[in-house]
């Protein structure tokens, strides 16, 4: 009766059906699911700023999982030092921009996140260096940074701030969108992601979706006025595109994470070519 009962579980049946679909159908289903989730949030969450607050809370939870892994498990296996370094770079630049352009509560949150990120970098580089998978963390940082620099030079805010500050602002937006790529490369190279790293990256995926939902719903709520407030030209759509890119970069991993959790697996197994 046990196997028969599992086979009739609606969740397992749905997951099994999705697994059997070709990639184009999976992409279509993922898009529809995202749209339906946005519609649900649009009517259930009345103050859409709460989505941003929820994103910050989940990010903090993800960082707590990472701290536990490093302090209790005494290993940094599966973590990308390069992703942490890219995170520190965009947070540092964003903090500078916040101080000279628009200081608010998020500046304090960024400062706390930067301090934690620098501690993680220290732990990986020095305390837990023996467990660092350097050979698998093989995505060159300049592959990520240089395109962001070029984009920032070409497309940046049209506000009244100094040109260099506007370019730095754009740079940190673009870099944040792709900073997780080295982490995804490490996971693709190992193809088996242990629980704490999986929880941390999944938390980042949820954060990115909530942040993206916050921006999209704010645009609808203001009838597009928010885009005007961001400036003119290509910059406003590039801000939204950066949010969408961040979400889709992590979408595949989040799918396999959920599938593993539903299947009762302790680790996430990624097939070749997922990320």
Could you provide a short overview of the structure?
The protein is built from 12 helices and 2 strands. The chain is mainly α and 275 residues long. A two-stranded antiparallel ribbon has the order 1-2.
How would you characterize the overall build of this protein?
- By secondary structure, the protein is an all-alpha fold.
- The chain has one domain (51-264).
- It is 75% helix and 1% strand.
- The chain contains 12 helices and 2 strands.
- It has helices at residues 2-7, 10-19, 23-44, 49-71, 81-101, 105-127, 141-154, 163-178, 181-190, 195-221, 225-230, 235-262, and strands at residues 192-193, 268-269.
- A two-stranded antiparallel sheet has the order 1-2.
- The two termini are 38 Å apart.
Features:
mainly alpha; two-stranded antiparallel ribbon; 12 helices; disordered N terminus
Mean pLDDT: 81
The Cα radius of gyration reads 20 Å
- Give the tally of structural domains: 1
The termini sit apart by 38 Å
Structural class comes to: mainly alpha
Outline the fold blueprint:
Elements: H1 2-7, H2 10-19, H3 23-44, H4 49-71, H5 81-101, H6 105-127, H7 141-154, H8 163-178, H9 181-190, E1 192-193, H10 195-221, H11 225-230, H12 235-262, E2 268-269
């Amino acid at each position: 009766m046990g196997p028969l009962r599992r086979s009739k579980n609606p969740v397992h049946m749905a997951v099994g059906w999705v697994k059997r679909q070709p990639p184009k159908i999976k992409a279509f289903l993922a898009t529809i699911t995202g749209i339906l989730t946005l519609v649900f949030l649009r009517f259930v969450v009345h103050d859409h700023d709460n989505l941003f607050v929820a994103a910050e809370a989940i990010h903090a939870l993800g960082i707590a999982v990472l701290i536990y892994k490093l302090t209790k498990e005494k290993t940094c296996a599966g973590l990308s030092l390069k992703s942490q370094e890219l995170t520190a770079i965009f947070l540092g630049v964003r903090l500078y921009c916040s101080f000279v352009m628009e200081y608010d509560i998020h500046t304090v949150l960024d400062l706390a996140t930067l301090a934690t990120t620098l501690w993680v970098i220290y732990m990986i580089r020095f305390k837990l260096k023996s467990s660092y998978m350097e050979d698998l963390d093989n995505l060159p940082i300049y592959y990520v940074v240089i395109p962001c620099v070029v984009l920032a030079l070409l497309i940046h805010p049209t506000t009244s701030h100094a040109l260099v500050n506007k370019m730095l602002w754009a740079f940190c937006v673009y870099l944040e969108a792709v900073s997780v790529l080295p982490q995804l490369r490490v996971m693709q190279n190992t193809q088996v992601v242990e629980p704490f790293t999986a929880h941390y990256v999944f938390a980042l995926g949820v954060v990115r979706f909530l942040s993206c939902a916050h921006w999209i719903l704010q645009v609808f709520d203001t009838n597009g006025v928010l885009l005007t407030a961001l400036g003119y030209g290509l910059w406003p759509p590039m801000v939204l595109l950066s949010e969408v890119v961040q979400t889709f970069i992590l979408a595949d991993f989040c799918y396999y994470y959920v599938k593993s959790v539903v299947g009762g697996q302790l680790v996430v197994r990624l097939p070749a070519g997922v990320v």
